[in-house]
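Colleagues,

For the teaching module next term, I've prepared a clean inverse folding example: a structure given as tokens, and then the sequence designed for it. I'd like students to try predicting residues themselves before seeing the answer, so please don't circulate the second half yet.
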């Protein structure tokens, strides 16, 4: 997740979650783009909406570890779990919750993409 303090100093590509870069110098080396004084922040397009709201959305260390475990489980199809972990009902419940949240997010993303496509098609027919 993008750090708000860093975003106040550098321009970000919000789609990638990375600092935007510009080619600099004779070798055209890609360098993070510093935010110029007075340059508008990207809070309106960011899921966190503001540095104040970001604090409310930050994961605790415990929740971050659970999220990391969920990613490892997805990547290894569960092979990373010890037998004890696989039998632990709390771990199974937490992983199931994260899986459900991920499915909702994926569905919403697909619906948004479909709506954007329909809007473009409608605009093209109007012209």
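(Answer key — instructors only)
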């Amino acid at each position: 997740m993008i750090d708000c303090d860093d975003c106040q100093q550098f321009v970000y590509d919000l789609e990638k979650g990375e600092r935007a870069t510009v080619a600099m110098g004779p070798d055209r080396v890609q360098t993070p783009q510093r935010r110029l004084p007075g340059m508008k922040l990207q809070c309106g397009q960011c899921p966190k909406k503001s540095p104040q709201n970001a604090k409310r959305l930050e994961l605790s260390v415990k929740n971050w570890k659970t999220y990391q475990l969920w990613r490892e489980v997805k990547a290894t199809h569960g092979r990373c779990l010890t037998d004890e972990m696989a039998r632990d009902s709390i771990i199974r419940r937490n992983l199931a919750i994260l899986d459900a949240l991920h499915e909702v997010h994926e569905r919403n993303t697909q619906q948004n993409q479909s709506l954007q496509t329909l809007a473009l098609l409608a605009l093209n027919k109007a012209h």
